[in-house]
Amino acid sequence: MTGQGSPVLRAGLIGLGMMGRHHARVLGSLDGVELVAVADAGGDVHGVAGGRPVLADAEQLIAAGIDFCVVAVPTVFHTEVGLQLAAAGVHTLMEKPLAPDVASATVLADTFERAGLVGAVGHIERFNPSLQELRKRLEQGELGEIFQVVTRRQGPFPGRIADVGVVKDLATHDIDSTAWVTRQPYTSISAHTAYRSGREHEDLIAMTGRLGDGTVVNHLVNWLSPMKERVTIVTGEKGCFVADTLTADLTFYANASAATTESWEAMQVFRGVAEGDMVRYAIAKPEPLRTELEAFRDAVLDVNGGRERIVSMRQGLEVVRVAEAALESAAKNTAVGL
C-alpha cells in the first residue's frame, strides 16, 4: 500500500466491457490512485463510470492527463492503443494476451522498455491466492523434485470473445502461471485443436510440453463444457499440490511413508505410490484483481517491489510465443521447439 503523503496517481481506463467494468470498480477504490476518466467507443454499457467522464478513445484519455492506463479493449486493438500510450509517456497495464501475435507483442515490449515506462500484462492468475501459495511452497522445496504440471481450464463459451480463440484467451493463463510457479521456461510444445462451435477460431486445445528442467506439462482447455473448471495439479517426489483458482483453495496430497504402507505392499506396488495425508491450507484470499492493480501501482511508483511483482510485457511476449507455437504445432501436426 502507498503510505500517507504518497503521490496520487492519475489513472485512466480504456475498454468498459466484461473485464473493464471490474477494473473500473477496483481502480475507483484503490489507495493512492484517482481514476480520472474512462473511455470506450461504445459508451458505458455497464454503468461503471461513477460520474467520471466517458471518453471515446485513447487520444482523449491521454488529453485528460493520466499517469497510467489500464487497457481492456479487444486484443486486436492492443498494439494501436499501446503505442499511443507509450508515445504519450503513459505507464500501461494491458489485459492479456499482450498482443494478437509475436511480432506485435515484440513491438510493444520493445517500445515500453525503450521509453523507460512500466509495461505490464494482466495475467491475473499469478495473483490468485492458491497459485501464490503454491509457488511459495514449491520454492521452499515442499514437493521435492517436480515431475509434472497438469492444468484443466474448461467451461461454456463466453459471448464477449470474438477476435481470438481459446488458446490466446484462456490457455495463455495456464502457460503463464505454469512457467511462473515452476520458474521454468517452455522448451517444446505439441498440441491438437478442434473447431466445434462454428466459429473461425479454435474452441478446444490439448497441449503437451516440456519445461527447461525437464518437467512435463499438460494443458486441457475448452469453451465447450457446461462445467466450469480451473485447476492446476503439480506432482513431484513427495506428493502433489492441487490449486483450484475458482475457489482459491490449495490442497496437498502426500505420498505415504514406508512405515505406514508395509502391510499394504502389494497394493502399493499396484498403485505406484501410496496415499498419505491430505492437507487443505488455510490461506488469505484477497481479490486477485486488486492485488494485481496494487502491484502495478507500486511498479509505477517504484515502491514495495512492484516491478518484480507485475507480469512485464517481456514476460507477456513469451506467453504469446508459446501460444503461437501451440497453434503452429496443431496446424502442422508436429512438436515445436522454443
What does this structure look like?
The protein has 338 residues and is α/β, with parallel strands linked by helices. Helix content is 33%, strand content 29%. The protein is built from ten helices and 15 strands. A nine-stranded mixed sheet has the order 14-13-12-11-7-10-9-8-15. α1 links the parallel β1 and β2. It is globular, with a radius of gyration of 21 Å. The two termini are 38 Å apart.
Could you give a short description of this structure?
The chain has helices at residues 20-27, 58-63, 78-87, 102-114, 129-139, 166-182, 265-271, 288-301, 306-309, 313-332, and strands at residues 9-14, 33-39, 54-55, 68-71, 91-95, 119-122, 146-156, 186-194, 204-211, 216-222, 224-236, 239-244, 249-255, 275-280, 336-337.
| Cα shape | globular
Strand fraction band?
25-35%
Biggest sheet layout: 9 strands, mixed
Please give the order of strands in the largest beta sheet: 14-13-12-11-7-10-9-8-15
CATH homology superfamily name of the largest domain: Dihydrodipicolinate Reductase, domain 2
Number of H/I helices: 10
Low-confidence stretches: none
Number of distinct beta strands: 15
Order of H and E elements: EHEEHEHEHEHEHEEEEEEHEHHHE
Rounded Rg:
21 Å
| Total domain count | 2
CATH topology heading of the largest domain: Dihydrodipicolinate Reductase, domain 2
Query: Helical percent range?
Result: 25-40%
Taking the alpha carbons of the first and last residues, their distance comes to: 38 Å
What structural class do you assign from the helix and strand content? alpha/beta
CATH architecture of the largest domain: 2-Layer Sandwich
**Mind telling me the CATH class of the largest domain?**
Alpha Beta
- What is the mean predicted local confidence, pLDDT? 93
Pfam family, one: GFO_IDH_MocA
Domain GFO/IDH/MocA-like oxidoreductase: 132-241
Domain Gfo/Idh/MocA-like oxidoreductase N-terminal: 10-123
Protein name: Gfo/Idh/MocA family oxidoreductase
